Amino acid sequence: MEEVENYQEEFGITIIYSKEDEPLGTAGPLALAMSHLEGTSFFVLNSDIACNVDLNEMKDDFMRSHAIGIILTYEVEDPTRYGLIMTEGNQIKSFMEKPKKIEGSGPWLINAGIYVLSHEVLRYIELREMSIEKEVFPKLAEAGVLHAFKFEGYWMDIGQPVDYLKGQQLAIENMETDDMLLNEIGATPVSQGAQYEPSEKPNGNVNKGYIDRKNNVVIGRNVKIGSNVNLKDCTLFENTVVENNVTVENSIVGWGSRLQKNCKILDFCVLGEGTIVQEGSCLKGCRTEPNSKFE
């Protein structure tokens, strides 16, 4: 919640929280937020994807269509992780949920997790646990009022740690210029490769954040980094402290964590907020809850 409040202040926007007393699935929350959505059109976005879709283009396509909903779609060769979409032109005709096996050859069109919906969709939604993919979209498709927005940029599901880091690399690689990338996150570049020496940063602090394009490293704001630190394919979130002689590879380090000297974080570790890894420890492939401590 604190991070979201910081975003409100930083970007000058208002964020309204919608709290569920019990899980409402992917459609029920829209009923919970109905008072904010009536009489307008709106985006619905899954938060576990990385892509470079132009949302303005998607909105304009929706405004030109006679649909009451459009779905971002993307072509993949292996459809078994995703729900498939069958279309005629841009009109969605039917869906197939995550097939275990499928005949024929790809590419296959999938639901890419971003939607533009008219307030008219709300009449199909109830305040209960409800799936927009299984219970709402098939009805809209049957009524002929659901269209596809076919997207050809980069797209990736980043719901798993290994995919998150691949998605991070995709995002870095697909920025048109370093300046654009750095402006997006308010960061400054690391040019010296995988070695991060405090002599190049006042007091060893990364105040604005850093991007290392070559090694797929993102360092959040106010991170303190010691000498002889090796980073590759990793993310260090804000306010983390990394002491001397630490290695972090293929891992995600949560906000406000502390990695004491001579420790190693390897093989897709995900460290929760406030994790402390004590001197000389080696963690491989672990998941930690917030405020954990490892000796």
TrEMBL record:
Its EC number is 2.7.7.13. One of its GO terms (biological process) is cell wall mannoprotein biosynthetic process. One of its GO terms (molecular function) is mannose-1-phosphate guanylyltransferase (GTP) activity. Pathway: Nucleotide-sugar biosynthesis; GDP-alpha-D-mannose biosynthesis; GDP-alpha-D-mannose from alpha-D-mannose 1-phosphate (GTP route): step 1/1. It is an enzyme of class 2 (transferase). InterPro entries: GMPPB_C, Mannose-1P_guanyltransferase, NTP_transferase_dom, Nucleotide-diphossugar_trans. Residues 7-169 form the Nucleotidyl transferase domain. Residues 215-292 form the Mannose-1-phosphate guanyltransferase C-terminal domain. Coiled coil: none annotated. It catalyses: alpha-D-mannose 1-phosphate + GTP + H(+) = GDP-alpha-D-mannose + diphosphate. Belongs to the transferase hexapeptide repeat family. This is mannose-1-phosphate guanylyltransferase. It comes from Vittaforma corneae (strain ATCC 50505).
